[in-house]
Amino acid sequence: MTDEHPAGRSQFLEAEAATSRGRKHTVNEDAYTVNLDAGLFAVADGMGGHRDGHVASGAIIALLERTLTGEASFEQRIEMATQAIQTVNKALHDQTIAVPGTDISGSTVVAVIIDENYACCLWAGDSRLYLFRNNWLYLISEDHVGEGGILTRAVGSAPRLEVDRRVIEVRDRDVFLLCSDGLLKGMSETAVADLLESDGHAPVDRLLAKSIAGGSADDVTAILVWVGYHER
Q: How do residues 214-228 score in pLDDT, each as one tens digit?
């Protein structure tokens, strides 16, 4: 594997996704999308214990799916995704204000937009994006969590939402993992890395199975994205 972007080759992406309802939940409050044409992958995790968490996460994913197209440039797709998340944030918060005394309807979100040379991570909350490269697992996002594990930022929780952004270079054989926080409630980052190292194209179902076997009672969602290049 080279550490440089492979000039003279065109990129291809492969992806797998899976989700599982937590054993103590009546509704799976996670939602996700895999859009190979737009290079868009996202996971949203409705805030447990709050009103209509599954509606909030579903609204984020639905608007991202409607908004992004493969025809738009990398920069345009980043702005489209950011605006979509902020639009849902305003709609959810306005609904809460309109009915005084009701609990908020909110969700975390993590998304990655992958272009020929770069990938952009967008997030709010504690759903995560990891990069597995050269048998090392790197956390790309940073949890918006305060003392006691309380979310300090989420879609729908405030009138205005700052969506964090990080851009990295994409390399041949990179593997991206997007997940809701339920995944890491049943397995460690070391266990994730070990699974990906032992089988670089491991089915995403194995991640969920290991997390659930490890004790995660939360909704669990994961997307694996593999990056490769063809000779032009």
A: 999 999 999 999 999
Domain boundaries, the chain: 9-231
CA distance 33 to 212: 22
Q: Tens digit of pLDDT for each residue in 91-138?
A: 999 988 877 666 668 999 999 999 999 999 999 999 999 999 999 999
**Residue 111 vs residues 30, 44, 127: alpha-carbon distances, Å:** 13, 9, 9
Assign domain 9-231 to a CATH class: alpha beta
Is beta strand 118-124 parallel, antiparallel or unpaired with respect to 128-133? unpaired
What is the DSSP annotation of 55-117? HHHHHHHHHHHHH--TTS-HHHHHHHHHHHHHHHHHHHHHHHHHSTTPPP--EEEEEEEE-SS
How far apart, in whole angstroms, are the C-alpha atoms of residue 55 and residue 76? 27
